[in-house]
Amino acid sequence: MADFYQNGVVTTLHNLSRRPTEELEAELLRFSQKRPMALILPSLFSELEGEALPHIVEELTQVPYLSEIVIGLDRATQDQYKHALSFFDKLPQHHRVLWNDGPRLKAIDEELQAQGLAPKELGKGRNVWYCMGYVLASNRAESVALHDCDIVTYNKDLLAKLIYPVANPTFNYEFCKGYYARVANGKINGRVSRLLVTPLLRALKRIMGDNEYLEFMDSFRYPLAGEFSFRRDVLNDIRIPSDWGLEIGVLSEMHRNYSHNRLCQADICDIYDHKHQDLSLNNDQGGLSKMSIDITKAIFRKLATQGYTFSNEMFRSIKATYFRIALDFIETYHNDAVMNGLTLDIHSEEKAVEMFASNIMKAGENFLANPMETPFIPSWNRVTSAVPDILERLLEAVEADTAEFMEK
Q1: Among 209, 380, 390, 404, whose Cα sits 20 to 30 Å from the Cα of 126?
Q2: pLDDT tens for each residue of 212-256
């Protein structure tokens, strides 16, 4: 059970009473009369064949308050798209599958690419961005939740707790970030958040002094959680990265666009486990290695927009300060694990910290070498200004795909 402590500048909504999910859902059903709700599920086709997504779909069939479920489907052939339509057909809510690799949506993407308005690389960010566009186009929801499709410990109460803060009409939150303890199978997980993001933020605060953005980011208990919810108007202005910096980029946009009292984080589950990425010690183009570089660059880019100047000398100072703080955290987490009867491999933890420290330098070198890099996807406001009918055409393309392949 969580405590009631409020840390940092962002409101924390705790799980203090183990309130029955049925009570939350009854309230959400009532809220849905004023604030219809939707869920975005960014998915790879391979996840349809895994153990997590079939169970997630079974849980969602029992959710009474959603008006719409939008599934973004990546890396799927025509036959696989047809299989996906059948796979999700058991959902009782209105739902649509965006076939991102299909000819209709690829034609829209190519048109936007020609005008410099489309995501520049494949990945979760691109998938989420097009799903957001569809939510705007369908106009069925005022409150929207998003979570991953590889959560093997999924339960429908996760969704209820995640969307409640932005669905309750007596609350003024525009955005809610989910958090949870990354503990499963007797181990503490979440290495990138524990051993990179938090120590890096603390190192930057030590070097740069008082900084409101760093304090904001350090207020989130699990900044890399892929689960968040938001009000529909957030979708128009948000600019998200297309790489692994998605979660950091979303938080940075919330910091830029909204005051702190319009943002919150919520404890959404006791146990959370999902597909684990390889550490990729010898490959900085994959796994946790690439993830750590993208995340670090996202933080550096945000600080640069505040007028901070970076140099190789400064990056060396950041790396050295980070390394000492991260090593101290390993002892902290080890002792926490021992007291709770969990295991934590100190050698593996130190190897991860050594890699992250090296990747801080790589991220810094990349940042300095590519000053014109713009990994952010344009906001939908900008896209609709340039192509006024794009949302209508996106909606038509998804409906046409559904009509053509649903019964074949």
Answers
A1: 404
A2: 999 999 999 999 999 999 999 999 999 988 777 889 999 999 999
